[in-house]
Write a structure and sequence with these properties.
single chain; about 750 residues; Rossmann fold; 3 domains; binds alpha-D-glucopyranose
């Protein structure tokens, strides 16, 4: 039972502005002054030029020239950074050219998409967000940073923090879901994990990048590289807050997004990049474009040619050009001809050099290039234990009836069905360029660690026609049912059937939008055929996005959301299935009943006719499906139960700056130890701009023994009580706020709190 109580509190009027200023190191600034005074115009433009490595591409074919031309340009000091080179040997090869063969010896900064691990993979970021465990998420990023840094990388293109309410979009797997408050906490945790204390004294920490700035999660129709059509209210109060949290955590880099906002491509958006990010927030790091996103302002119809694109982007505040072949060479003549002011160039170069100095690359350009450390760190036992820990915590129990879970540890005949059960590749998820294929512990291998039951694995259904890759479309099997009979026989003979179904790991990620988010291929048919033979099914979902599974939700007694959990998938899933870890995850994104409900999120608006109060058809609803989600944001079950009671607040009315303390008692009313994420939601009942029916403003992850109770306190400060108005001023308006606390964003109907 999820009990929600609510109180109302009264706030007096106040307005406040919250500005961050990242501190500069005067010693570094002096060094930058000295170096820049020696640099030629060409060498300055060179620092703003990033080339992809000479092999893997993570975007369209590189335009920066052939490998030979790239090497030549590095030698001429015309390259400031490389991406997707990796491994001490390969990085050393390019770094030696920059440091030992160029006139000024300015080291390269080496970037890489370390999205959820380097070689040892943690769960996809959306799964990690489901843990609501900021310490575990920070540890996961630290683990990823250690392997990347030991491999010569000093800068990651992560965390991605695009808020999104659209599961059709493949890149929801990279973010933290639909909520800005949770997204902000996760962003800050990941920045801390990657950057540590921001001194970079440790050679195992790397600079982080907040991406994609901004509003990429709102692309129209979930189509990649498309326009984002959103209001400033959404931009200011849902999209930007996680980025600001990352900047406030000491972030050193920001990546622009492919989309437009209000008709302006993000890489050329002066308001976002210079007015908000650099000036209002005081961001002192540097901005990199996305892959060729400066050049793509031409096909957008925003820049008429390369010169126009170069001018718009550098004036807007994009400091480095990723594989666009625009800044180099076009900026050189633009500055010579006086068409672009030198100050824009100098600001960009200063920022890039600043981060290189902060990373210690000038003190020792080879500090990240230690073969012995690489061998010790990459793939270490400690790293595998860290990713196993976060993998277990990322699993969400969606349904558990007939006491199917946890599985009994002996005397059971268990049939395991579905090719995903044996897959060692799909569970690694997308965005894992450095990892080796087929290095995950499969679900089957995890289950085989438990010897007390008889396991009978029958594939039954091959998910895809061929094994997909990061660069190929996923082709699902839609015709071959030849394995069904054998699977049905296995199910018939079993006490319990564990079916691993869902999406291949490469069905989500960049350029993987889908209009249909049902179980792809023949899986739904397969699931129903097995159900007709034996309904004692435990469905283990592997997916990189919310899926529409209404039939399963209605018929299948146990459903475990196991995302793509990375290298230790099988051990994490098995330990949860057998109850050695009691699932504690909560959904970071709503699961729709069908794709027609999208965009869907818990923090929706009330509309003028939210409920059918007049008992007629003229109210906000669908005629063919309930408008609530199948599974709501913040939802997740446990093998135990929890009860909330005694919600109380330290005062009834508050003035500026007074701390609001909300307390609630939580009890473990079940038979096993378990963790619960107590969530606090606020509803500002009347305000100058409409507010969502509820907004997450606090959460506490609590572990309780059976019968144990704990009083949980939430503190609400200005940050939680305020919002950004149309002038992008942070304001707190007087009025009544409803406070709600519970174990999910949904509520029990008897409270009559207006629901989704
Ligand atoms: C891709 C992605 C971006 C990534 C970059 C480098 O197009 O949009 O997230 O960091 O290119 O791989």
């Amino acid at each position: 039972m999820k009990i929600i109580h609510f109180f109302t509190i009264t706030i007096m009027s106040l307005t406040t502005t919250i500005n961050a200023q990242q501190k500069l190191n005067p010693e570094i600034e002096k060094k930058i002054d000295a170096l820049m005074s020696k640099m030629t115009l060409e060498e300055k433009v060179g620092q703003m030029n990033q080339y992809n490595g000479f092999w893997d591409v993570t975007g369209p074919a590189p335009v920066g020239g052939t490998a030979e031309q790239k090497y030549e340009n590095i030698k001429k000091g015309l390259v400031g950074s490389m991406l997707t080179v990796r491994g001490v040997a390969e990085v050393k090869a390019v770094q030696k050219i920059a440091v030992e063969q160029t006139r000024l010896g300015i080291p390269l900064i080496i970037g890489f998409d370390v999205i959820h691990g380097y070689k040892t993979l943690s769960p996809i970021p959306l799964a990690e967000a489901a843990s609501w465990d900021m310490k575990a998420i920070e540890k996961s990023a630290e683990t990823a940073a250690s392997e990347a840094a030991a491999s010569g990388i000093n800068w990651t293109f992560g965390p991605m923090m695009d808020i999104s309410k659209d599961a059709r979009w493949g890149r929801v797997m990279e973010g933290a879901g639909e909520d800005p408050y949770l997204g902000g906490k996760v962003a800050a945790a990941r920045v801390r994990g990657f950057q540590g204390d921001n001194t970079f004294k440790s050679p195992l920490r790397i600079a982080a990048t907040a991406k994609h700035f901004a509003a990429y999660g709102f692309v129209e129709s979930a189509l990649e590289y498309n326009a984002a059509e959103i209001s400033t209210n959404t931009l200011y109060n849902q999209v930007l807050p996680p980025f600001k949290s990352a900047v406030d955590a000491g972030l050193r880099s920001v990546m622009t997004s492919f989309n437009t906002v209000n008709g302006i491509p993000a890489s050329g958006d002066q308001y976002l990049l210079r007015d908000v990010l650099k000036n209002k927030w005081g961001f002192s790091g540097f901005v990199i474009s996305d892959w060729a996103s400066i050049r793509e302002m031409i096909p957008w119809g925003f820049s008429k040619d390369e010169n126009a694109a170069a001018k718009s982007a550098v004036e807007a505040g994009t400091d480095m050009d990723m594989e666009g072949g625009i800044y180099f060479p076009y900026l050189i003549d633009l500055v010579k001809q006086g068409k672009v002011k030198q100050e824009y160039l100098d600001d960009a170069v200063r920022r890039i050099l600043r981060v290189k100095y902060e990373l210690g690359l000038f003190d020792d350009p080879y500090r990240f290039l230690n073969e012995k450390r690489e061998k010790e760190v990459v793939g270490s036992k400690a790293n595998r234990e860290a990713v196993l820990d976060i993998a277990k915590k990322s699993i969400v129990l969606l349904k558990n009836e007939k006491s199917l879970l946890p599985l009994k540890k002996s005397g059971q005949k268990i049939a395991v069905l579905g090719s995903l059960a044996e897959s060692k590749n799909s569970p690694l998820g997308s965005w894992r360029i450095a990892a080796d294929n087929n290095t995950a512990v499969s679900v089957l291998e995890g289950l085989q660690q438990y010897k007390g039951n008889s396991l009978n694995y029958v594939k039954g259904l091959e998910l895809t026609k061929v094994e997909p890759t990061f660069l190929t479309e996923v082709e699902y099997n839609t015709t071959d049912r030849s394995g069904f009979e054998a699977a049905k026989k296995a199910a018939r003979e079993a006490d319990v059937v564990v079916m691993v179904l869902g999406e291949h790991g490469f069905s989500s990620g960049e350029a993987r939008s889908r209009t249909n988010i049902d179980l792809p291929g023949l899986q739904q048919e397969f699931l129903e055929e097995i159900y007709n033979v034996n309904s004692n099914i435990v469905l283990v979902l592997n997916n990189g996005r919310p899926l529409t599974i209404p039939w399963a939700a209605e018929h299948i007694p146990a459903i475990l959301e196991a995302w793509h959990l990375g290298t230790e998938t099988g051990n994490a899933v098995a330990q949860v299935l057998y109850g050695d870890y009691n699932p504690s995850g909560k959904l970071p994104m709503s699961f729709p009943r069908n794709v027609g409900q999208i965009p869907i999120s818990y923090n929706h608006y009330s509309t003028g006719r939210f409920t059918n109060k007049d008992n007629n058809v003229f109210w906000s609803h669908y005629s063919d499906v309930d408008k609530t989600p199948l599974y709501p944001f913040g939802f997740g079950l446990s093998y135990t139960t929890f009860e909330y009671s005694n919600l109380r607040i330290n005062k009834k009315s508050f003035t500026k700056g007074e701390k609001i303390i909300v307390s609630v008692d939580l009890k473990n009313t079940g038979k096993v130890k378990g963790k619960e994420v107590a969530q606090l939601y606020l509803h500002d009942e009347f305000s100058s701009v409409i507010k969502p029916v509820k907004e997450l403003k606090g959460f506490e992850l609590v572990e309780l023994k059976p019968g144990e109770s704990k009083s949980i306190n939430f503190t609400l400060s200005d940050y939680e009580m305020g919002f950004y108005n149309s002038q992008y001023e942070f304001v707190i308006e007087p009025g009544t706020f409803k406070v709600m606390v519970g174990g999910s964003s949904d509520t029990i109907l008897s409270q009559n709190i207006e629901l989704f």
